[in-house]
Design brief:
heterodimer, A: 347 residues, mainly alpha, 3 domains, B: Deoxyuridine 5'-Triphosphate Nucleotidohydrolase, Chain A, nine-stranded antiparallel sheet, two-stranded antiparallel sheet, 3 helices, 34% strand, globular
Chain lengths: 347, 206
């Protein structure tokens, strides 16, 4: 397909998206600006080379795919809310999160930056100071209402923050792989360790329990360290035990002028509310992130027979899981609703 | 049976134990009226859709039985967003508030008169001890679409003390809609009576 025709087709799709009412105002603005940039490129065919148009069409197409995911109105907004709360500590850049439900079992978090491309390659179009990053979260459809099972998204966010800050790039620069080690393997393992530690900053032990549940005995592979090694690093980090990997990342972050890795959560005492089958009233960011570990523990204990007023013998494990995940989702949703309500009251 | 008034509602909101009333979140104290509590339209909806099937069957034993959720499409709005309710359309919604009713109090949930006058009529009741966001069946009785705003006070609940504690959650059987945080479709096909009634029908016709 010719690049300009590709770009033209992407613009048609973006226009259709822009006409849907099921869209937030920020995403409407993003879409309109992107359509404006495409209009500019298509207006004078000789102005930009086919190579530039081809890459731009690709960037715009990916953006369009991400944006389309947010029109389905099925997104797990509660997880978006939690991740949004974590991002500002690490980057001041505006980030627009969109969500797509996937048919697979894997989570992913993919950033796309059309404005960087526009600023560098589409020189005749002025975007000004507008440069929000678009981030697509991919969540397996079966976990749409299962926040406790969405903890891996914090790990994926860790990869995004790593990429944004350049932590592993800097790490490999100051501490290159020893002779005989494969550069890509070392890079992948460091990326995974960093993302694990990032997730642990917010979800504590629950971040690694998830991995231990999914893949308890996985050995090291070219892309991932062994589960046991990953668990040990996280446990030592959370336990305040000296660990060379943690120390190395802390020094990289300091050199990059970024905040350090540290527990950014506290565990809310949810048992009294959950035992009475009521959501917990969250009032702080630390509790917002900490509810994942508290809920993980509560669910595990209830499945293992911990008594509560509602977990009667006729309930299946599925019923118990549903109640605990729903209470967690509603606890988070209530906090976001309260926050929005208060923001409307403030002049 | 006694209708709870503001003083008693506020007393129960601040208490604990089986007589406590929980409303989470209660965005404004002014939601509590003299004898009612205003409740807000929630963020999630199940919108009825037309399908190839001529009718909704409640008999799971029917050869061409389809789950009731297949007649509805889920959608979601954010606080302050609008939702259009079309004439003759049923939409299952829920309240923003998660309710924990006392063990001795049941609730009648109605549309506020401002919305009843627009043709949006709601009338449902909630068992003592109920926990969850209330599932509400929205139906537009007039011939003009009606715009509703997510988070607005569309419903009101009257609370009645039944004079004795009941065992909503601690009975031997699971409740159909307990702990719901989003609208749920009808679970009429799970009614055990339907199996018995079907057997009666078959015996009669054989």
């Amino acid at each position: 397909m010719r690049p300009r025709i590709d770009l033209h087709l992407v613009r048609e799709n973006l226009r259709q998206l822009d006409e849907t009412t099921y869209f937030s105002e920020k995403l409407h603005t993003f879409t309109k600006k992107l359509i404006g940039a495409i209009d500019h490129v298509l207006a004078v065919p000789s102005r930009y080379s086919d190579d530039v148009v081809r890459v731009f069409a690709d960037v715009a197409r990916i953006s369009q795919t991400y944006l389309a995911g947010s029109t389905t109105k099925e997104a797990p907004y509660e997880m978006e809310y939690c991740l949004r709360a974590a991002i500002p500590r690490w980057t001041g850049r505006e980030t627009l999160i969109t969500t797509a439900l996937t048919s697979g079992q894997d989570f992913h978090l993919l950033p796309i930056d059309p404005w960087n491309f526009v600023a560098t390659a589409v020189s005749g179009y002025q975007v000004g100071a507008y440069s929000p990053l678009l981030v697509l979260i991919g969540v397996p459809r079966i976990y749409r209402h299962k926040p406790i099972y969405c903890i891996p998204l914090y790990h994926e966010l860790g990869h995004f923050i790593d990429e944004t800050l350049g932590v592993i790039r800097y790490s490999l620069f100051v501490n290159p792989p020893p002779p005989g080690y494969d550069h890509e393997v070392v890079q992948s393992h460091r990326q995974e360790f960093f993302a694990d530690l990032f997730a642990a900053c917010y979800c504590g032990h629950a971040s690694i329990r998830t991995l231990q549940t999914i893949a308890p005995h996985n050995p090291a592979t070219p892309t991932h360290p062994a589960t046991a090694d990953r668990a040990r690093v996280v446990e030592e980090f959370l336990g305040g035990i000296q660990n060379d990997i943690v120390d190395h990342f802390q020094s990289c972050l300091a050199a990059l002028g970024a905040p350090n890795l540290m527990p950014l959560y506290s565990l809310p005492s949810i048992a009294q509310s959950y035992d009475d089958m009521r959501p917990f009233t969250l009032t702080s960011r630390e509790h917002l992130h900490g509810i994942f570990e508290s809920s993980w523990n509560y669910l595990s204990e209830t499945l293992d027979g911990r008594p509560s007023s509602w977990a009667i013998p006729s309930l299946s494990d599925g019923d118990i899981e549903r109640v605990v995940n729903d209470l967690t989702e509603k606890s988070i949703r209530n906090m976001s609703i309260k926050e929005r309500w208060d923001s409307g009251i403030t002049p | 049976m006694e209708l709870l008034h503001r003083e008693e509602i506020e007393r129960r909101l601040g208490s604990s134990g089986g007589q406590a009333l929980h409303i989470e979140p209660l965005l404004e104290l002014s939601q509590i009226g003299e004898v009612t509590i205003d409740l807000r339209l929630g963020t999630e909806f199940l919108v009825s859709i037309l399908t190839r099937k001529a009718y909704i069957s409640v008999h799971k034993s029917d050869q061409d039985y389809r789950g009731i959720s297949s007649y509805f499409r889920p959608t979601r709005r954010e606080l302050g967003d609008r939702f259009i309710l079309f004439p003759n359309q049923i939409v299952l919604a829920s309240t923003i508030e998660y309710l924990g009713l006392p063990d001795d109090v049941y609730a009648d949930v109605l549309s506020r008169s401002s919305y009843t006058r627009l043709g949006v009529d709601v009338n449902t009741m909630v068992q003592p001890g109920f926990r969850g966001c209330l599932s509400v069946e929205l139906f537009n009785h007039v011939n003009t679409p009606v715009e509703l705003v997510v988070g607005s006070r569309v419903f009101q609940a009257r609370l009645f003390s039944v004079g004795r504690e009941t065992l909503y959650n601690s009975g031997p059987n699971r409740r159909k809609y307990f702990g719901a945080v989003r609208p749920a479709v009808s679970r009429a096909p799970d009614d055990s009576d339907l199996i018995k009634l079907e057997a009666i029908r078959e015996r009669r016709s054989s």
